[in-house]
Amino acid sequence: MAGTVLVAGEIVVDALPYFDQGYEGPNIHEEAEALVEEETHRYRSTKNNQSYLIVQNYSGSENDIMINEFQRLADQQPIEFLSMKWYELTAPSSGQKNVIIAWQGCVNNSMLQLEHQAVRIENLEVMSQQWLGINKNLVHMIEHTQKELQKLKKHIIIEGKLMVKTLQNGKEIFGSDVSDKGFITNFTETRSKEEKQFKSDI
Prior knowledge:
- By secondary structure, this protein is mostly helical.
- It has a domain at 5-42 and 130-201.
- Helices cover 59% and strands 3% of the residues.
- It is built from 4 helices and 2 strands; from the N terminus they run ββαααα.
- It has a two-stranded antiparallel sheet with strand order 1-2.
- Helix 3 (100-172) packs across helix 4 (181-201).
């Protein structure tokens, strides 16, 4: 691998990307793991780095209905069918067909059901208005993510071209002394120029 030297601007260069050799040598992976293990034992943490984290309460928003439903799913029980009895418009019994009070009770029940349905419709309208704002936020998040994805793709393309070019340059000077300061300086400056050129072309 390349030696450590100073190049223009006093930048320390101790590696040449895609050109350094030796990473795939025998026992390299085991030696790296041994170094990491040794350092973790030598510099043990003196405090709990997770002490600032808040213990998450994932059941805080569960109500009795949700708890019962989760329990039903855990027990693999079939779902209960929705009862429509409350919505039935019942008529007076056969013995009260001519009783005005009985019919008045049925009418009151119908009016209550209509009022209930009106409240439900109003709630749905409020939800639809709220959804418009939520939907705008979702669209904004998607657009932002797509822009970030395009930037990432450009970086991948640039790095791919740089890798190919770097490997080509490496083959041309293979066998040279890569620890030579002049070689590393020229190699680094050439890569920097190529990177700027690739970014300007995209």
